[in-house]
Each structure stands twice: as structure tokens, then as C-alpha cells.
Design brief:
The chain contains 1 helix and 12 strands, in the order αββββββββββββ. By secondary structure, the protein is mainly beta. A 5-stranded mixed β-sheet has the order 3-9-8-6-11, with no helix packed on it. Strands 4-5-12-10-7 form a 5-stranded antiparallel β-sheet, with no helix packed on it. Strands 1-2 form a two-stranded antiparallel sheet. The relative contact order is 0.20. About 23% of the residues have low confidence.
Amino acid sequence: MTTKEIHDLVKLVNRLELSEFKMKDGEFELSIRTKLFGGKQKRDTGSPVIAVPQASPVAAPQPAAPATTESAPAADLPPKESEDGDEGLVEVRSPIVGTFYRSASPDKPPYIKVGDSIDVGSVVCIVEAMKLFNEIESEVSGKVVKVVVEDAQPVEYDQVLFLVDPKG
């Protein structure tokens, strides 16, 4: 299953407001849990069936070395203005579920830090998903005001990663 197919599947799970989705195809397993998982939402008595198109055969597992593979599509998540009282700030959000890393490896400096100026297309971090290290590019230019997520922490789809002042 390609990264794009996984991304599309995550969008579908969110759009259908599912709490959990599991898929197994040979040795390939995928489990997605949303913030609705384990909550006190109304439970349906029947389990919805989702038809997932069969992908090409699963490729061999990738090595765990942080080699970047592809950038997240910029058109999928337009920048949003911050809703937490941070007037005029724009949120840079995660386009995929995975583990957030501020740098390419532990011995390298972070891609960006508070006070840095960034441009549209600048790599701001990496999100690891299924042993693939995806470079996340900024969709806005400006000055980084806040790093919202700690290094090596799990992130959800559409979770805020950074706050940027587009006027800075």
C-alpha cells in the first residue's frame, strides 16, 4: 500500500467518523484509531463494512534508517488560522498519522526552531509512518512562533505542529 493510499484511507476514516479501522493483507497490517476511540460516543450495533481496493503486492519492509522518501502533498491541507486566541497566526498541520521528528536524525539540528523565518515549500519536520520518513513542507511563509509538538511524539492526521506568523 502506498503512502498516498494510506493518506486517502485516513481521510476516509475521519470523514466517516469511525473510531477504529483495522486492515490486514498478508503480512501487511494497518490499524487506525481516531480520537473517537474509547470515547463515550454512540455505538452502532452493526459493524460497517468498508471495501478497500486491493493494492499491488506489499513491498519488502523498508530499513529503519531515516532516509526521506517523499513530501506530503501541499494541496491536501490548506493552512488554517489558529483558533486558540493566537490572532493572526497560521497553523502548520500534520498531513498524516505518525511520529513527529524535528530533525533528520538525533545528531542533526532541527529543521526549524522558534524565531526562524520559513518560506512556502520549506521542510519543517519529518513524520514517520510505517517506517517511511515523510518530509513535511510548509504551506505558508512567515516567522515560526511556536513548536506545538515535542520531538519523537505521535501525531494524528490534521494535528497542529507549528504556529507561524505570516507577517513576520
